[in-house]
Design a protein that fits this description.
Blueprint lengths: L1 H27 L6 H8 L3 H7 L3 H25 L4 H18 L2 H6 L2 H5 L2 H27 L9 H22 L3 H18 L1
Helix pairs in contact: 1-2, 2-3, 4-5, 4-8, 5-8, 5-9, 5-10, 8-9, 9-10
């Protein structure tokens, strides 16, 4: 019984630390992501952070894992569920945008040179998961073309990369200019235009 409570407490603590790390990322970027900054944001001691993570690289690995599960994992679940291809793409697009809105640290991490030029294991993990994400979107687009909902001549992979590019562009603008209602409206306009182009 005690071990279950301890496990739950450990999981909750790790989640709190991950949330705090994303807050630090959103405010200071990857360079500002230190154990001390995470501890301050989480309202914990440095020692408490080290009880759950070996150091900054360990935290970064956990953050990338979170992104993979929350964005790529959710996209796979939506793609495998019920609904038309366009409805699936819409759900994936806006769930991805909502997560970025809630965690502005996500694009700061994904676009960071420290990730791509630093620990190759983290960069490679992110690249592989991104590849799966593109494959998932490509399959939905291919199904839409086969069912006559989308243009027959669409290239599924290139269309999937265009889809991802809309998200990356909006996320990058958030990093540069901060969150605003304008970005929500812009995302809605981008989605409506993308749908017109592929139908």
């Amino acid at each position: 019984m005690g071990s279950c409570l301890e496990k739950k407490s450990t999981d909750i603590r790790r989640e709190e630390i991950i949330r705090a790390a994303f807050e630090v990322l959103g405010e200071k970027g990857v360079r500002g992501l230190t154990i001390a900054a995470i501890a301050e944001s989480a309202g914990m001691s440095n020692a408490n952070i080290y009880r759950h993570f070996g150091g900054k690289d360990d935290v970064l690995s956990a953050l990338v894992q979170f992104i993979a599960e929350e964005i790529m994992g959710k996209a796979s679940s939506i793609a495998a569920g019920s609904g038309t291809p366009s409805a699936k793409l819409e759900r994936i697009f806006f769930s991805h945008m909502a997560l970025i809105g809630e965690n502005p640290g996500i694009p700061r991490l994904v676009f960071s040179e420290e990730i791509h030029l630093g620990d190759r294991k983290i960069a490679d993990f992110l690249a592989v998961r991104l590849g799966y994400y593109v494959e998932t979107i490509s399959a939905v687009i291919a199904a839409g073309s086969a069912e006559g909902e989308f243009l027959k001549e669409l290239s599924p992979r290139e269309t999937a990369l265009t889809f991802l590019g809309m998200i990356q562009f909006t996320a990058l603008r958030r990093v540069m200019g901060g969150a605003s209602a304008e970005h929500v409206t812009e995302a809605e306009r981008l989605w409506a235009n993308f749908l017109r182009l592929i139908r």
